[in-house]
Automatic annotation (TrEMBL):
Protein name, entry field: MFS transporter
InterPro entries: MFS, MFS_dom, MFS_trans_sf, MFS_Transporters, Sugar_transporter_CS
Coiled-coil blocks: none
Annotated PROSITE patterns: MFS (PS50850), SUGAR_TRANSPORT_1 (PS00216)
Pfam families: MFS_1
The organism of origin for this protein: Cryobacterium luteum
Subcellular compartments: Cell membrane
Chain segments annotated as transmembrane: none
Length: 410
């Protein structure tokens, strides 16, 4: 008689003993993303103390993008070839250095260096760190591991600005305390990384010998997987560009246009944005990937429509709604992209595929955010934000059309 098997629920899979290393690896992802967005509520404070413009603010934010993108060109390749730890541990050490610099920042240059090093650390995490989560999940937990990696990222990204906003609301000089707490969290993550049971991914089946020469190249994936990356990028890129705008210019919008200058409000808005991204991923964890991506495009489109209304009608509540929808758009695009990678891309290319996905997302996020910052200096906050939202709405529609037309619903 043929045996029948039942699909084990996600919660049961996460309770099985082998799930513990996967969840510990996800904790490392969370720790670094807490650092990535902790400065958000402090930008208005630093602007006041150091006297820089909205354009310079987006340059500081862009330093993060430069560090991230440069790292993504090599981190995935090194992690796939030499193992996840060989990349994770140096990345976490640099995160600790960045954290220390934020705590004592007294000039724009120090902020730029700290943001650059944070970008390097995040580049390590979104390539090698997220691949480590999926590796430790094993073949039985591919979708659950992709969910764990994605949720860990957005949860950390939301927790950072919330904690930062709480401290900034109560202290005249909050940065030393905020980043001391984060230093402890990162040091814990480093200890976890050292002891995780991570092994080097298996060599490519196409390699002629074990001694095949390693050479750096632009990040890529096998040709058969390129379409999977294209679908993920088409939705993830507009989503993360929307959340990057909220992180870099959201506090200025709240302070200058909507007369809400509290760092707790700015931090709370960023936190709520990423909590929405976290919650929606659990909600759709069993939904087909095609539907996840289509919902992501729709959420980003709705976020941009809300942003246009908020900045022209000067309604803070609608700006917060826009941030929530932007978080949902990024979360769904990210989950869809990571799920396609986790279920289709072989392990010896997984970190590099993660790098490609994030390069495709962060390049437009960095370029559009910086361009909008300087555009705002020339034409004003309301007009610049409106133009940004219109461009991104078109990109979200185009991504949704690509997924709907070409990605199989099964």
């Amino acid at each position: 008689m043929a045996q029948t098997t039942t699909r084990q629920p996600d919660a049961a899979l996460l309770r099985r003993p082998g799930a513990r290393p996967m969840l510990l690896a996800a904790l490392i992802v969370t720790a670094v993303f807490v650092l990535s967005n902790s400065p958000t509520p402090l930008y208005v404070y630093w602007q006041r103390e150091l006297g820089f413009s909205a354009g310079m603010l987006t340059v500081i934010f862009a330093a993060y993008m430069v560090g991230l993108l440069l790292t993504l060109t090599v981190a995935g390749q090194f992690a796939d070839r030499f193992g996840r730890k060989s990349v994770l541990i140096p990345g976490l050490v640099l995160a600790l250095v960045a954290c220390s610099l934020f705590g004592v920042a007294s000039s724009v240059l120090v902020l730029v260096i700290a943001r650059f090093l944070t970008g390097v650390a995040v580049g390590v995490i979104v390539s090698a760190g997220m691949a480590a989560v999926v590796d430790l999940g094993g073949p039985a937990r591919r979708r659950q591991a992709s969910l764990a990696a994605s949720v860990a990222m957005v949860f950390g990204a939301g927790l950072g600005p919330l904690l930062s906003g709480l401290f900034a609301q109560r202290m005249a000089t909050p940065a030393p305390v905020i980043f001391a707490v984060e230093f402890v969290l990162l040091a814990t993550a480093l200890a976890i990384a050292i002891f995780l049971p991570l092994r080097r991914p298996p060599a490519s089946q196409s390699a002629d010998t074990a001694e095949a020469r390693f050479s750096l190249h632009l990040p890529s994936v096998p040709k058969r997987n390129q379409r999977h990356l294209a679908y993920g990028i088409a939705v993830f890129a507009p989503g993360i560009t929307a959340t990057s705008f909220v992180l870099s210019l959201g506090p200025s919008l709240l302070s200058n246009l909507l007369n809400a200058s509290s760092p707790l409000v700015a931090g709370g808005m960023a936190c709520a944005m990423f909590l929405a991204a976290t919650g929606v991923q659990f909600t759709v964890s069993r939904v087909p990937v095609r539907s996840i991506l289509l919902l992501g495009s729709g959420a980003t489109l709705a976020a941009m429509a809300s942003l246009i209304i908020a900045v022209n009608a000067a309604v803070p509540a609608i700006l917060i709604l826009s941030a929530l929808l932007a978080g949902i758009g990024q979360g769904l695009g990210q989950l869809g992209g990571l799920t396609l990678i986790g279920t289709h891309v072989p392990g010896n290319h997984r970190a590099e595929a993660n790098a490609v996905l994030n390069i495709g997302g962060y390049i437009p996020a960095g370029l559009l955010s910086v361009a909008t910052g300087y555009l705002i200096n020339g034409i004003g906050l309301s007009a610049g934000a409106t133009l940004f939202a219109a461009v991104l709405a078109v990109a979200a529609i185009a991504g949704g059309i690509l997924v709907r037309r070409d990605l199989s619903p099964h």
